[in-house]
Design goal:
The chain is mostly helical and 432 residues long. Helices cover 77% and strands 3% of the residues. It has a two-stranded antiparallel ribbon. A hairpin with a 2-residue loop joins strand 1 and strand 2. The longest helix is centred in the N-terminal third of the chain and has 30 residues.
């Protein structure tokens, strides 16, 4: 369609020119004393058009002639830029492929060409970023080759060039790489220093939080590691299965650093509500409190949500967690009675009556009845539990309790048999 319109326009111009020039009798007289020159209007128009074209071509020619130096300069810059970009791509490709020596040499080629351009008076607008990234690639290659001296030298130059206006955004990347290198050198404190120097926005990025978590765990800063893991879980950096495990392991480490009951209570208050409901964390915290000679009633209050959860959702706790919970409750009843011990004994009895086939609850109820001096019921429940108990530790405790009950009623033969059964359980128990 466009070509057809062009043709129509061309034909229109031709027709107009033919009508104008075909019967045009006009003349132009030029007086040049003592001469007189008569020229037709058509000839004058042609001469003016030819003169315009001649001047236009002459000006274009002069412009092209005078532009040759700038074009040659532009060509040289483009040639150098293409060579630098090619070398930079080679450095990246070699680094990803594991050819670290070639990667460092390619990065040094980029720096050499950029220095040559600067020496010749040509300065690129992005020279700061180019130099910083080139030094970073060379430093990364040196780190892979365990050449720390070369790494530190290139990294120092990279930081210097990152201070320029066009390269300030690369400084955050340099700091992150420095933190990663410190972790690879097992220097957790240096890694945390680099991460602390990051801006607030960059410090909350997922990659920075992951590095902080590794550094905190490597340096033994459990509280910092737990806070960082919470942020990562909030940002969904972990899967739904992995997040509770990581938080539980860090919370367990934090509980372990409680060296007295007061400090352990502070640690417990620092945990989130969801972390307190983790069975392993609550059981370990309560066990630690009893081990340190702290408040037994407080430790039982920590175990209460886990106990209620075990009764409401038996599959929520593993068999090992159930055994640890029962063993911890049973051992707590051997301590001086508290104000809530009678309430706990009632809870245990109700749970056993609600599920009479559960051997673990039978064992716990039997041990509880022994504490209450209900000798007959205790013997009945412990004997029934031994048929289905699978944990060697609980079996041993049950046989020992039966031996003590037999001694109390004066049955020496039954007591001796129970002690022998307890010894057999100890001998056959698997090593931890």
């Amino acid at each position: 369609m466009r070509a057809a319109l062009w043709f129509l326009g061309l034909f229109g111009v031709a027709v107009a020119a033919a009508l104008f020039a075909g019967n045009n009798q006009a003349t132009i007289t030029v007086f040049w004393p003592p001469y007189r020159i008569d020229l037709s209007l058509n000839l004058v128009v042609l001469l003016l058009a030819f003169l315009f074209l001649t001047l236009h071509v002459a000006l274009r020619t002069l412009n092209a002639l005078f532009a040759l130096p700038s074009q040659a300069r532009r060509w040289r810059i483009q040639h150098q830029e293409r060579a630098m970009h090619s070398a930079l791509l080679d450095a990246l490709a070699h680094l990803l492929a594991g050819r670290f020596i070639r990667a460092r040499k390619a990065a040094e080629v980029v720096l050499a060409r950029e220095n040559a351009m600067t020496s010749s008076g040509e300065t690129l607008a992005y020279s700061g970023r180019l130099r910083a990234l080139s030094h970073l690639l060379a430093a990364e290659s040196a780190q892979a080759l365990q050449d720390r001296q070369a790494r530190e030298e290139h990294f120092r130059h990279a930081l210097e060039h990152a201070l320029k206006r066009d390269a300030q955004e690369t400084r955050e990347g340099l700091q992150l790489r420095a933190a990663r290198w410190a972790l690879e050198d097992h220097d957790a404190q240096a890694a945390l220093v680099w991460l602390d120097e990051l801006p607030q926005g960059a410090a909350r990025r997922t990659i920075a939080l992951r590095l902080r978590l590794k550094a905190a765990r490597l340096g033994g800063h459990t509280r910092l590691a737990l806070e960082t893991a919470r942020l990562l879980a909030k940002h969904r950096a972990f899967s739904e299965v992995t997040a509770p495990r990581i938080l539980a392991s860090l919370a367990l480490e934090l509980v372990q650093i409680g060296y007295d009951p007061e400090q352990l209570q502070k640690v417990w208050k620092q945990l989130d509500a969801s972390e307190r409901l983790l069975p392993d964390v609550a059981i370990q915290a309560a066990s630690r409190m009893i081990e340190l000679g702290g408040d037994v009633e407080l430790s039982r209050s920590w175990l209460l949500p886990i106990w209620e959860r075990m009764l409401a959702q038996p599959e929520a706790l593993t068999e090992l967690q159930r055994i640890h919970l029962v063993d911890l409750l049973e051992s707590s009843f051997a301590l001086p009675a508290g104000t809530t011990q009678a309430l706990w004994l009632t809870r245990i009895e109700q749970a056993q009556m609600a599920d009479p086939g559960d051997a673990t609850l039978q064992y716990l109820a039997g041990m509880t009845c022994q504490r209450l001096q209900l000798w007959g019921k205790a013997q009945q429940l412990l004997t029934q539990s031994l048929t289905h108990l699978s944990d060697p530790g609980l079996q041993r405790n049950a046989w020992i309790a039966l031996a003590e009950l037999a001694e109390r009623r004066g049955d020496a033969a039954a007591s001796m048999q129970a002690w022998q059964n307890a010894a057999k359980v100890v001998n056959t128990a698997p090593l931890a």
